[in-house]
Structure formats: C-alpha cells, structure tokens
Amino acid sequence: MRSWPFMLNWTWTAQVFFTLHTIVLLMKMHSYSFYNGHLSTTEKRLYALDHPETASTAAAVRYPSSSTNLHELDQEKGKEKKDKDKTEALTQLREDLALELTSPLGQVTYPQNLTLGNYVDYLLCPTLCYELEYPRTEKTQWMELFWKTLAVFGCIFLLTITSEEFIVPVLNDSALRLEGATKWTDRGLILAESTSLLLFPFMVMFLVVFLAVFEYVLGAFAEITCFADRHFYSDWWNSCDWLEFSREWNIPVHHFLRRHVYGASRPYLSRGTSTALTFLVSALLHELVMGCITKKLRGYGFVAMNLQLPIVALQRTKLFRGRTLLNVCLLVPSIISIYGSEAD
Fold it and tell me: Quick one: average pLDDT of 334-344?
C-alpha cells in the first residue's frame, strides 16, 4: 500500500496525507477490533456463570482505558496474582464482568454498541482509542467550526510560503554546491551552512503543522461529532525531560501506544521490554512517514528515535534528576538531532 503513491508519482504532500490517513485508520480498526473482542470474551464468561460448576472463577480482566496511568498498568500484574489466591464470590464476579461490559457513563452496554452508526461515529471522532461511550457537548458550534476550517487553509498557505521561499531554494543550492565539492571539509561546511539556514524555517514548519493538526483539524472534527474531550496536547513546550515531551506533544498517539502496545504487552513482558517495544513501534511509524517525504528509507530517523531510550535512562540518573537546566540542555539537542536526521 505504501508503494502506491510512488507508482502514481504523487507529490510528497499527497503521499504523507495518504500514509497518515492509512495509519490512523489501521490504528482505529485495531483498537475497535481488540476492545470489542475483549468485551465479547467478557460477555461469554458472564453467561457461563449460569453453570458455575464448569465456569471459570478467575478475576475479571479490566481492559485499560485511554486514560489509564502507567503505574496502574504495572500494578495490574501483581493485583491479578493476589486476587487469584482468593475465593471470589460469584456475585462479585458477576458484578465485575457486568461492569466491564458497561461504559463509564453508564448509558451504553455491550453489544448495543455494535452498529454501523457507532462505528462511523468512532471513525470521525478525534481519538485513536475506542470506547463504548464518549463525553459529548450539547451541540455543534458552527461558527467555531467555520473559523477552525478557515484556519486550516491559512496554515496550509503559511506552509506553502515557508517551504517555497525558505526551504526549497536552500536545498537546491546546497545540492548544486555539493556536486561541485571534492573535499570532505568543503562538504562539511556546506552541510553546516545549509543546516543553520534551515533550522528556523523547519521550526516554523513544525509549529504550524502542529497548530493545524492538533488545534484546528482535530478541533474541527471534535465540533462535528460533539466530542467533548479536547485534550489533544499538553504544554510540551515546558517539558524538562524527554519522557515528559513524548507524553505531552501528541496525546492521542500516546494514549494508543500506552493502551494497545505497552498495556497489551505488559502482562507478558517486563516493564523495560514493554517500554522498548513501545518506542520501537513509534520509531517504525515515524520512519514510514519520513520515507514518504524523502522517498528513501535510510533508517537514520529510526535509529535516532530509538536513541530516546538511553536518553531517558540518562535523565533518570542522579546527575540529571531534579536539575532542570541540565535536562533542557540534553533535551533540545536531542530533538534537533532526531528531526534533523529525518530531514536529511
């Protein structure tokens, strides 16, 4: 599927649009299928309690929600083992299973959610984690939707101007100069000069793309679907370490990875292995998107993304813990190197 844009000679913008939408739909379908599969198993266990002599009396499995904290996932393993040592009453087990089949708001119960309308509504909601029910606003604010839609086109105009005036000319000029350079020192100077000229335009591009996606596009779909949870990002610009930055700059993807990668693997793997697996999946997705832009899979971005793990381990040492200035000095060059390697 990823080769289609290249065979059709699409522009990089069309390639990224197609790839990102494909990835989003796959993530949404994964969440929808796995969560409903879990609810189906829970429902069968509930019905099986009508014959308690043959039914399993193991504790009810609670599927992690998108808002479940990491320490709660880590405690789940020990909690299940502790509960298995007790003889739990069947009435309590019935209540736990029935509670798992009911939405937190109490208005939808599995399998009432298995309708085409519910699935289409989930596809339009600005979230990657499926739930039986979401908090909703009373009505769509059409003027707010209009201004957000207008702002998206304004951001696209700014992106076009920035790339055409400040990025493409620098890249073309550096490419011509590199062809004529014979010494590695000359090549190094050209690359250093080009990088310095591209730092500010790339920062502007990053901020405008972030604003367009997380504030205007997701906000517009939230207005269309009356989706009440508008917490798409936190104050990542105040982050003092890498883990805080990765958690707060893209909350929908962070919730998906925490729920369906880290949370799903935690019962079978150690905490460190589950964390490494989560970073690995994130790095693969980033490399795929950057490959569509550059039309090359060099692996620089993939390796740089996986270097986050030793950075996190270093920031947890006594040398960096509690020292904001040292953490920021390590965080900023890390971000520049990672996204810079992807751009190269």
Answer: 50
